[in-house]
Amino acid sequence: MRSDAPSTDRPSWFLRLAAWGGLVFLHFPILVILLYAFNTEESAYSFPLQGFTLKWFSIAFGRGDVLDAIWLSVKIACVATLIAMVLGTLAAGALYRRDFFGKEGISLMLILPIALPGIITGIALLSAFKTLGIDPGFLTIVIGHATFCVVIVYNNVIARFRRTSFSLIEASMDLGADGWQTFRYIILPNIATALLAGGMLAFALSFDEIIVTTFTAGHERTLPLWLLNQLTRPRDVPITNVVAMLVMLATMLPILGAYYLTRGTSDVAGSGK
Q1: Which of 156, 207, 216, 273 is an S-S bond match for 144, by CB 3.0 to 4.6 Å?
Q2: Alpha-carbon dihedral sign for residues 116, 118, 123, 124
Q3: Is it true that domain 62-262 has CATH number 1.10.3720.10?
């Protein structure tokens, strides 16, 4: 029997309006940066746009300070991601099944760096480095980034571990495989996509990080720090927009890649507990 009652499956016009309003609110600043990266006006945000040009891209990528900042950010993100993938996987493998005294405390300590405000983490790391007599630089930035990148990898890998049947590992060991063979042929294929997704998210998080970097960089200038310094130079606004667009792409693409790698599973990248 067909009911004449109105369908409740479709959201109301108010909810749809609120959803579109939220999307516009979130993405309008990004759209402004994208548009003004192609504007012919040199000094400020003039409206309407004065014209369309690609010259700011050639100018930006012809500047040594921009290229140095990009290369430094890429190196830091790659090293921090590699460290996070190793340590995060080891931590997840140690904690996902075994129960022992203090396990919950260790799990809390692992996820704490990403839960704390960045300024607290930055001050704590700077104090620790000064106490140990370590000068701020490339190494300290990598360590600072790795502290929170480990959390991303750990969350993704342990979520996949919990979906992996332990009977597969037991069967592998019963058939005579050693620990390395079991990891290579059983564990790694099962966690590969989650590990890769976690690494991509860690890279994106490291590439555009600025708060912890401010405390640990010393005289080094990553790309986000370069952008921050450009705020006092109004005549470089178009070049700043170009570099900002590069940062957005460098962080957006890994995040989208991580999402598509894990969207067919119950452990969507970044959502592990």
Answers
A1: 216
A2: positive
A3: yes
- Of 20-29, 138-147, 207-216, the one with minimum mean pLDDT is 20-29
> CB of 72 within 8 A of CB of 220?
yes
In Å, how far are 28, 59, 117 from 53, measured between CA atoms? Answer: 21, 12, 40
Predicted confidence (pLDDT) per residue in 39-67, tens digit: 777 666 666 667 777 888 888 888 888 88
In the predicted model, what is the mean pLDDT of residues 119-137? 90
Judge whether 30 and 248 are in contact, CB under 8 Å. Answer: yes
Mind giving me the DSSP string for the chain? ----SPPSSSPPHHHHHHHHHHHHHHHHHHHHHHHHTTBS-SSS--SS---B--HHHHHHTT-HHHHHHHHHHHHHHHHHHHHHHHHHHHHHHHHSS---TTHHHHHHHHHHHHHS-HHHHHHHHHHHHHHHTPPSSHHHHHHHHHHHHHHHHHHHHHHHHHHS-HHHHHHHHHTT--HHHHIIIIIHHHHHHHHHHHHHHHHHHHHT--HHHHHH-TT---HHHHHHHHTT-GGGHHHHHHHHHHHHHHHHHHHHHHHHHHTTSSS-TT---
For 257-268, write each residue's pLDDT tens digit. 777 776 655 554
- Per-chain mean pLDDT for the chain: 81
Residue 181: per-residue pLDDT: 76
Give 84: exposed, middle or buried? Use CB within 10 Å, 0-12, 13-18, 19+.
Answer: buried
Cβ atoms < 10 Å from Cβ of 36: 22
Residue whose structure tokens are 């930035």: 141
